[in-house]
Design goal:
This protein is an alpha+beta fold. It has helices spanning about 5-15, 50-60, 65, 110-120, 125-130, 145-155, 180-185, 250-260, 300-320, and strands at about 30-35, 80-90, 100-110, 140, 160-165, 175, 195, 205-210, 215-220, 240, 265-275, 280-285.
Length: about 325
């Protein structure tokens, strides 16, 4: 990605996360474009949106009436929510010389959640949610004495422990240490940190929760790297979509509860399983998160159709109860 593209994305994201966006009265659909030089990067180029309409219709015919309107504000979820699609272009092929979009990174943001946070109401600290739903042993640390105390509680046979700085992605801010001095030399007390027990594992679950229900689970075989629970961090892996029947019930329950307590409509919840005793640990609740992982047994377009279909169904059920 070029410097120009990064700058464009940054401007869009700053605009999107600005608190004023929560004043929107209707659902707004935002399209982030990875490469403004692609034919379908026309939103960034401020051209007409007609071409994007036509292209999306090609992929989502069964839900198009709910998604595409002249102003991109069809009110089919809840007033105040925002839908985001990150738009990527397929590479040109011999069979098809045109560039087609691939939609991923679907997320929703709730005005109710933002308002409650600003008013300090109801919603729990996310670390507390992690702890209650099976986070690996450890705790937040704000000063040297706390680091020493927690480290001595969680350190492994060889002194190993994990230092995690919150607010970063794809393994950034996660480091493995073999002694207390190493952690103290690395930690930045101006940031939010936790010292955690090191859990050996060779795969992780990405549990996708939508409106309080698990709708899809990916199993990621990552190897035993200490950051391998961070999707996309490891060099080699295999990712497969698995049946919900093959997911431990404990994981589904904790994932749903964690997302509900976070006040988020949809999230990707990561779990790892201890190689030694089979115990499951919640690593992170991610929102927004990446829906467009490469995996066996499905296409990105099918996943997006499923998500939109679920959202439509949930909304209709809510309205029917009113």
């Amino acid at each position: 990605m070029t410097g120009k593209e990064k700058k464009i994305q940054l401007k869009i994201k700053i605009l999107f996360f600005n608190k004023n966006i929560w004043k929107i009265k209707k659902v707004k659909i935002i399209f982030l474009v990875d490469n403004p030089n692609y034919e379908y990067g026309i939103l960034v180029k401020n051209r007409k949106l007609k071409l994007i309409n036509e292209t999306i219709e090609k992929y989502f015919k069964d839900v198009i009436d709910y998604v595409i309107t002249d102003k991109f504000d069809k009110n089919f979820i809840e007033k105040g929510n925002t839908l985001v699609f990150r738009i990527r272009s397929h590479k040109e092929t011999r069979e098809n010389e045109k560039k087609y979009i691939k939609a991923g990174c679907f997320s929703t943001y709730s005005e109710e959640r933002e308002k409650s946070i600003l008013e300090n109401k109801n919603f729990k600290d996310q670390f507390l949610i992690y702890k209650e739903n099976g986070l690996m042993p450890g705790n937040k640390v704000k000063k040297r004495e706390e680091v020493e105390k927690v480290y001595n509680e969680v350190k492994g046979e060889n002194g190993e422990a994990i230092l995690k700085q919150y607010g970063l992605t794809k393994g950034a801010g996660v480091s493995k240490h073999l002694n207390l001095d190493s952690i103290l030399g690395k930690i930045d007390f101006e940031k939010e940190n936790a010292v955690l027990k090191f859990i050996p594992h060779d795969f992780s679950y990405r549990v996708i929760v939508l409106a309080g229900k698990v709708v899809r689970v990916l199993k990621i075989f990552t190897g035993t790297d200490f950051r391998s629970n961070a999707l996309g961090q490891e060099k080699t892996r295999e990712t497969i979509a698995i049946s919900l029947d093959n997911v431990p019930e404990e994981i589904k329950i904790k994932a749903e509860r964690g997302v509900i307590e976070s006040g988020i409509l949809t999230a990707g919840v990561d779990f790892i399983t201890d190689l030694r005793d089979g115990k499951n640990y919640l690593c992170e609740i991610n929102s927004p998160f990446d829906w467009s992982l490469e995996y066996k047994g499905g296409k990105t377009e099918d996943v997006i159709k499923m998500i939109l279909g679920e959202l439509i169904k949930i909304t209709k059920e809510k309205r029917a109860r009113k």
